[in-house]
Amino acid sequence: MKTIKILTTLAIASVVMMTGCKSNSDPAPSSTNPVVIPIQAANPALVSLGSSSTIAILAGSQITNTGATNITGDMALSPGTSIGGFPPGILTGTQHINDNIATQAKLDLTAAYNDAAGRTSTDIVTLSGNIGGLTLTPGLYKSTSSLAISSGDLTFDAKGNADAVFIIQIASSLTTTSGRQVILSGGALASHIFWQVGSSVTFGTTTVFQGTILAMQSITFNTGASLNGSGLARTGAVTMAGNTIVKK
Known about the structure:
Order of helices and strands: EEEEEEEEEEHEEEEEEEEEEEEEEE
Largest sheet: 22 strands, mixed
Radius of gyration: 18 Å
Mean pLDDT: 89
Distance between the termini: 34 Å
Number of strands: 25
Number of helices: 1
Helix content: under 10%
């Protein structure tokens, strides 16, 4: 099995390529010698979302909103019973509170989460720390701790492949700082990006994010953050504050 590790911090990045028991380390790249992530041989299959595929926001305990949040897509809560802040929030879709549709969506979210978390690859790329400034190509990515997009924006490049899939496995939390963006390039689709997050997700103010969030616990959107995709939280709450969320 070949494992490619990309370890990043705010100012320093190191690349370690491991094949079997042999390890070769390159010097930490500078701003003029950026991290280059090798193209993976295998393109992962899509993660099946089942009945949760129409859901823009799904939570386990509660959904709360303040301000002029606008959601395009369905919203569901199970097993919780508390949805607050609509209005002033606007939902262009159907609301499901602990009904059969919400219950099935939660079951399908659990299956999707387990699917994404269990994926393996012969050339998986390991990420760590701040991944802002990187360009990710199709494939499987893994973090054994938390990830942040906190210095520079993150780009997904499909390399012209309309079927390109990106799966990011994160053992703990995912955070973005204010104003950070996830950028799609080379025909990359938000609907083909899956973030499996072992704890919670926090989006900084005015963040622009792409993809399907499969979070074990909670998702927090700070003021003005937007998501092209879905925010699906298994056990905790989804909290919004004047956000734009469009199901992709």
